[in-house]
Amino acid sequence: MAALRYAGLDDTDSEDELPPGWEERTTKDGWVYYANHTEEKTQWEHPKTGKRKRVAGDLPYGWEQETDENGQVFFVDHINKRTTYLDPRLAFTVDDNPTKPTTRQRYDGSTTAMEILQGRDFTGKVVVVTGANSGIGFETAKSFALHGAHVILACRNMARANEAVSRILEEWHKAKVEAMTLDLALLRSVQHFAEAFKAKNVSLHVLVCNAAAFALPWSLTKDGLETTFQVNHLGHFYLVQLLQDVLCRSAPARVIVVSSESHRFTDINDSSGKLDFGRLSPSKNDYWAMLAYNRSKLCNVLFSNELHRRLSPRGVTSNAVHPGNMMYSSIHRNWWVYTLLFTLARPFTKSMVSDCPVGGGHC
């Protein structure tokens, strides 16, 4: 095993010796996976023993983990001035053999995004998160970035977006993260964002439609629509339509629409059961902020379901997510009554890191 000797290690466990054409690799999180160069596939289980493994402990003194231009993890030994793609901790792996559940794995309200993404490597994946400069949008963007994804924070306020980018880079200076301007209250801005994104000539593997407005006083956007409806639903609807071709080319891909359990407490049909467009973008006299929010969240769910029906045959899935009962966030900043209610409820709600769509929220 020349590679092991080069890393200063010796292979003493014949049971774990890999068959010809196989290579042992590690993710940024320290989980071991196996690459079959003959069949060009990877798997978590050892090809001989069927065991799953992870490396134990930190890198030896003088070693540093790097990522090359292709996104492949490699290791630098600064003391002996050498480089290898073999994790020096592979000689000290521990077995990870969790009991297989009889049903699919379930998570509770305290599960964080980092816990769910543990062992996953998103290197080479491109993720767009709207409204990612704070709250659950920021936690979602950070979680993906810390697991190797190229993350784009799509935000209206670029000063706050750039600050969010800096906060992520403080946690991992090699994170691939950037900010782009997106104002969902202006359809022209949505169009400009889609054009700018396509100009990058990159894939789009995950689109998280997270941005939302809550408890706004009645107002119309420059497009002549009620603001809550346009920001929470129509802007995202238009964004997905403009990026649909990129999502399909990037398949398998996923759209995640952050909705709310409050979608159950309203409807958008009139007394005859037909869609009432006046309820989607009501006049000032017919407007109630909470009802407008609930209707926009119902539109989110209906949109996500129909999008999945249409695009899943092309490899693009869509999920509507209820993130759970949120603790303090800026979503309620528009009226002091809601701020007071959220503050009083804070001890009984979830943490922000478990609220994000890849955390403990419920689909």
UniProtKB/TrEMBL annotation:
Membrane in keyword set: no
Example GO BP: regulation of signal transduction
Any GO CC annotation of this UniProt entry: lysosome
Ribonucleoprotein listed as a keyword: no
First-listed, main subcellular location of the protein, grouped into a coarse class: cytoplasm
Annotated ranges, domain WW: 16-49, 57-90
InterPro entries xrefs: NAD(P)-bd_dom_sf (IPR036291), SDR_fam (IPR002347), WW_dom (IPR001202), WW_dom_sf (IPR036020)
Region (Disordered): 1-24
One GO MF term: oxidoreductase activity
Cellular localisation: Cytoplasm; Golgi apparatus; Lysosome; Mitochondrion
Family under the similarity heading: Belongs to the short-chain dehydrogenases/reductases (SDR) family.
Assembly information from the UniProt record: Interacts with TP53, p73/TP73 and MAPK8. Interacts with MAPT/TAU, RUNX2 and HYAL2. Forms a ternary complex with TP53 and MDM2. Interacts with ERBB4, LITAF and WBP1. Interacts with DVL1, DVL2 and DVL3. May interact with FAM189B and SCOTIN. Interacts with TNK2. Interacts with TMEM207. Interacts (via WW domain) with VOPP1.
PANTHER family assigned: RETINOL DEHYDROGENASE, WW DOMAIN-CONTAINING OXIDOREDUCTASE
Name of the featured protein: WW domain-containing oxidoreductase
Gene designation per UniProt: WWOX
